[in-house]
Amino acid sequence: MMPVAEGKICVPEASWVPAERLKFVNRFVVERADSCISCGLCASLCPNGVHKRVEGHASILPPYHQRCIGPSCSSNEYYCVKHCPTSSLSVRASETFPALRASVTSTLAKGAGSGGSERT
Ligand code: SF4
Ligand code: SF4
After folding, report:
1. 55: CA distance to ligand 1 center in Å?
2. CA-CA distances (angstroms) from residue 14 to 23, 95, 100?
3. d(CA 43, CA 18)
């Protein structure tokens, strides 16, 4: 079992994350394949700012995963995956987030059970 520092957790596929910062960990992963032609359509469609194309730059910026609402977005007219002209986009749930959340919950529960607290 990996060591647990105060207020932090660690799982094999993720780096150290302070418990209070779990809310900033992305729940979904937006993948853009090499077939992307950086047309910028996804950037103009997504209202959450996941995609961004900077004028003068040859390539669109990497997706801002934290802002994506996930596969449930498919019910929206603006769903980027559906509109991409080269079918380069996919959206899925993060495999890391549930593990991080479970570890944080477990760590906090142990702290509460021992009468101590992970937070100050
Ligand atoms: S819409 Fe598709 S091809 Fe255009 S920039 Fe976005 S991912 Fe790339
Ligand atoms: S799935 Fe929806 S929220 Fe996520 S990047 Fe695409 S348009 Fe934006």
Report:
1. 15
2. 15, 10, 8
3. 31
* Minimum CA distance residue for ligand 1 atom 4: 39
Distance 30 CA to ligand 2 centre (A): 8
Q: What is the pLDDT of residues 14-59, one digit of tens each?
A: 445 666 777 788 899 999 999 999 999 999 999 999 999 999 999 9
Q: Is 86 in the pocket of ligand 1 (CB under 6 A)?
A: yes
**Cα–Cα dist 71/62, whole Å:** 18
Task: Give all domains of the chain, ordered by start, each with its CATH number.
Answer: 19-113 (3.30.70.20)
Tell me the CA–centroid distance for residue 68 and ligand 2, in Å.
5
